[in-house]
Write a structure and sequence with these properties.
heterodimer, A: alpha/beta, FAD/NAD(P)-binding domain, Enolase-like, domain 1, 7-stranded mixed sheet, 5-stranded parallel sheet, about 35% helix, globular, B: alpha+beta, OB fold (Dihydrolipoamide Acetyltransferase, E2P), Dihydrolipoamide Transferase, 6-stranded mixed sheet, 8 helices
Chain lengths: ~450, ~450
């Protein structure tokens, strides 16, 4: 098979890159050793959002009386929640297949290895074949990490891969790592009545977020009786007690299962990178701003090339690589303007820098905060946890960072993402009329707050 | 009593905005129909605006010094008790730089008076004005972006829209530029669509030395940006519209001006006779030749060619801030003396911007003379919808061949620019030949 571009991996980075290449008139072959859509569609983003929706519904049912609905108890099947998430994942994966057919992209099932600059060898169920390609885009993604010496068996020691599939919930679980993956699963488990304990080595939950966000999330979790221990180092994870025993520098904990949510490692081995001289740095592939590796004609995108390990960042990189290959001059990505979203309840969304980081960078900041308790829509919804926080440069009104906790945070963030792309200042947001009643009004009010002019507070 | 809306009047075909020079009445004054309310600066002249209703001038909406597009409400006359709130509310706010209510006036030729876009002689050898400092072509880091202290921005304000066009810059870039005292018009944008983004301003601001904003004690200003006068703005806007679609061709002739020169000196020595200039001779010669070559006294109309049977000649007058072409009507019926007197009057009034509206349009042919600047020859741009324009060089004493030997003679170059859609080379050449003959046998200009 001879094509213009061979894409290895069809996760969000790979499939978007493949489609963009096809749009630009290139012939494309896409290699996939699992299901189209990669981790995101099949084992990550999508099914977990379906599970989180289930969790949300369970929580609402728990509040039924508040809304005048009388239930004589109810039963929530965790297994069916998992099954629903599988149907959702399935549907999205089929969607990618449809998009490939529509764009005349050849899907080659199997494991792809770079044999030479212009050749990808695919070992699939039907044997081995070599794809001749003028350019290659590597998009093999990442896989869950574990702590040294702690193997993942997906039975008692789970990774997100097992957690997203296991239909039988444990009675208790220790989640190690309080990043987005950890807190999202914690939310799901807790909603289904699992006793959850979160362990985090850094001083707070979601440690990459703004400090106030971490505090707010912790408050919300505490109300739901989710145990949290931060600033704690895990010494060992061994079978014991009801299932697993975790030794930490703050004591010993036991639970039926452990979920390792300590991060993900790029999948860069066994791809033929070393023999070709594709340069790596600290476990990630080194690429130019146009996603080309140290070997001309070989591109890499997504989790393979470094943080943030986010699907949307991979998609954007996929477009850049495709356009670079097609001879266009793609605009380099603004890595400082990638929204980070966590979909537990309350949702978290942020973009730009935290207040602390802005100050570290020497900026004089003005900060506006607006709580959802003062937002009409939130009160009407009965969902008033959280706030919008805007960090701006005092002199110019430049929007340095926005941090949102609460209902639909992951949607509300986008007005600020667009604003930062066009270099809007606080003024432009303030002069934009926001519909009433919406949660987004909190965005407007927080922005006004940064200028000392909040009306509804 | 009725409420009278005072609107910015359309004082010429081409006029799109007018500037209020000063109000001669103020709010509260009683007005009679016919009273002069204000003086208005148009693209061609300063004109007095009359009131068309009686009452009290209840509201002045556009203060002196400000512009408004033609047709916008600039004042309201009514009786003291009348309710004018509705009239005020329905009036759109006058914008700073008017948008064309006139539209492409040069395309509409239903009336005889077509807008004379002021012709700008495209100088082949004319002295070029000092070039405006390069705006967008210099890369930002290389440009020694100097403050524009002449503008004197004391407090951070966003740069306002420039007469040359909006500066595309992100809001953040604008704010930083204003605070750093960097002129956005000097910066090359690297953002989408050439937009100036913050990193472009940062790069430019680095090269700006800290000049205190309020220290005008002799900083050596490398340049200054002069806002466009009404005339220039009009010329700048209309010229590309007029030049591009008109296929110009040029015919040059050299006229032996010895006899015409003598005639002129004799005439000017006569007592009681108006002084005649070389240009007056050229105007008269053209008027006569245009009658004999109506094909050159013509205008391309799209579906037809309009041929005039009267010669209304536009005479280009250079002003400080631009070019204006008042029209001398019916030159074919005027004697050389009449032409001399009227041309001088037109030129003088043009210089103080006191031309009548009827004198600003209706030319069938134009003449532009750069002889007073020692110009040998040049080519002018046709004033649409006219079909031709004559560019006149200076009268020079040069070596000439006469009677097989070398002598000294006076020669003057005439360059005729023609619209090739209305006429072809031979037609233009024949006309020019006639003009030349008339000037070389100048007594014919007197009969």
């Amino acid at each position: 098979m001879k094509v213009d571009v061979a894409v290895v991996g069809t996760g969000p980075g790979g499939y978007v890159a493949a489609i963009r290449c096809a749009q630009l008139g290139l012939s494309v072959a896409a290699v996939e050793d699992d299901r189209p859509g990669g981790v995101c569609l099949n084992w990550g983003c999508i099914p977990t959002k379906a599970l989180l929706r289930n969790a949300e519904v369970v929580n609402l049912f728990g509040r039924a009386a508040e809304f005048g609905i009388r239930l004589a108890g109810f039963e929530a099947s965790y297994a069916e929640a998992i099954q629903r998430s599988r149907r959702v994942a399935d549907r999205m994966s089929k969607g990618v297949e449809f998009l490939f057919r529509k764009n005349k992209i050849t899907l080659v099932p199997g494991r792809g290895v770079l044999k030479a600059r212009g050749a990808v060898e695919v070992s699939g169920p039907g044997g081995t074949e070599t794809i001749q390609a003028t350019s290659a885009i590597l998009a093999t993604g990442s896989e869950p990490k574990s702590l040294p010496g702690v193997p993942i068996d997906e039975k008692t020691v789970l990774s997100s891969n097992g957690a997203v599939r296991n239909e039988q919930p444990p009675k208790s679980i220790i989640v190690i790592g309080a990043g987005a993956v950890g807190v999202e699963f914690a939310d799901v488990y807790a909603s289904y009545g699992v006793q959850v304990t979160i362990l985090e080595a850094l001083p707070r939950l979601v440690p990459l977020e703004d400090e106030e966000v971490s505090k707010e999330l912790a408050r919300a979790f505490r109300r739901r009786s989710i145990e949290m221990k931060t600033g704690v180092k895990v010494a060992s994870v061994k079978p014991g007690g009801a299932g697993v025993a975790v030794e930490t520098d703050a004591g010993r904990l036991e639970a039926e299962q452990v979920l390792m949510a300590v991060g993900r490692a790029a999948k860069v081995t066994g791809l033929g990178l070393e023999p070709l001289g594709v340069r790596l740095d600290r476990g990630f592939v080194t690429v130019s701003p146009r996603m080309e590796t140290s070997v001309p004609g070989v591109y890499a995108i997504g989790d393979m090339v470094g943080p943030p390990l986010l699907a949307h960042k991979a998609m954007a990189e996929g477009v850049v690589a495709a356009e670079a290959i097609a001879g266009r001059d793609p605009r380099p990505l603004d890595y400082g303007n990638v929204p980070a979203c966590t979909y537990c309840r309350p949702q978290i969304a942020s973009i730009g820098v935290s207040e602390a980081r802005a100050k570290e960078n020497g900026r004089e900041v003005s900060v506006g905060r607006f709580p959802f308790t003062a937002n009409g829509k939130a009160v009407a919804l009965g969902d008033t946890e959280g706030f919008v926080k805007v960090v701006a440069d005092k002199a110019t009104g430049e929007i340095l960072g926005v941090h949102i906790v609460g209902p639909e945070a992951t949607e509300i963030i986008h007005e600020f993402a667009v604003g930062r792309t066009v270099e809007a200042t606080l003024e432009e947001v303030i002069h934009t009329i926001h519909a009433h009643p919406t949660l987004s009004e909190a965005a407007l009010e927080a922005t006004l707050g940064a200028l000392g002019q909040a009306i509804h507070l | 009593m009725a409420v009278t809306k005072v609107v910015m009047p359309k004082l010429s075909e081409a006029m799109e905005t007018g500037k209020i020079i000063k109000w001669l009445k103020k709010e509260g004054d009683r007005i009679q129909g016919g009273d002069i309310l204000a003086e208005i600066e148009t693209d061609k002249a300063d004109v007095e605006m009359e009131a068309f209703g009686a009452g009290v001038l209840r509201k002045v909406l556009v203060p002196a010094g400000e512009k408004a597009p033609v047709g916008t409400l600039i004042g309201v006359i009514a009786e003291p008790g009348d309710d004018i709130a509705a009239v005020l509310a329905s009036a759109p706010a006058p914008a700073a730089a008017g948008v064309g209510a006139a539209g492409s006036a040069s395309a509409r030729n239903d009336t005889r008076s077509a807008p004379p876009a002021a012709p700008t002689p495209s100088a082949a050898s004319a002295p070029a004005p000092p070039p405006r400092p390069a705006v967008v072509s210099t890369p930002a880091p290389a440009a020694p972006a100097v403050n524009a202290p002449a503008v004197g921005i004391p407090a951070p304000t966003a740069p306002t829209a420039v007469a040359t066009g909006r500066v595309k810059a992100s809001p953040l870039a604008k704010k930083i530029a204003a605070q750093a005292g960097v002129d956005l018009r000097l910066i090359r944008g690297t953002g989408p669509g050439g937009r100036i983004i913050r990193r472009d301003v940062d790069a430019a601001a680095v090269t700006v030395t800290a000049v205190p904003a309020a220290a005008p004690t002799g900083p050596a200003v490398e340049y200054e940006d002069r806002p466009l006068s009404q005339i220039r703005a009009t010329i700048a806007k209309r010229l590309p519209l007029s030049k591009a679609p008109v296929p110009h061709f040029y015919v040059t002739s050299e006229v032996a001006m010895d006899r015409a020169w003598e005639l002129r000196e004799e005439l000017n020595a006569l007592e009681g006779q108006p002084k005649v200039s070389v240009n007056d001779l050229v105007v008269r010669a053209c008027a006569l030749a245009l009658l004999r070559h109506p094909g050159v006294n013509a205008s391309f109309q799209g579906e037809s060619i309009r041929v005039w049977h009267r010669a209304h000649i536009g005479i280009a007058v250079a002003l400080d801030d631009g070019l204006i072409t008042p029209v001398l009507r019916d030159c074919q019926a005027k004697s050389l003396a009449q032409i001399a007197v009227e041309a001088r009057d037109l030129v003088e009034r043009a210089r103080v911007r006191k031309l009548r509206v009827t004198e600003l349009s209706g030319a069938t042919f134009s003449i532009s003379n750069l002889g007073m600047y020692d110009v040998v020859e040049f080519s002018a741009i046709i004033n649409p919808p006219e079909g031709a324009i004559l560019a006149v060089g200076s009268v020079r004493r040069v070596p000439v061949v006469d009677d097989g030997g070398l002598g000294v003679g006076r020669r003057m170059a005439l360059t005729l620019s023609c619209d090739h859609r209305a006429m072809d080379g031979a037609m233009g050449a024949r006309f020019l030949q006639d003009v030349k003959r008339l000037l070389e046998e100048p007594l014919r200009l007197l009969v």
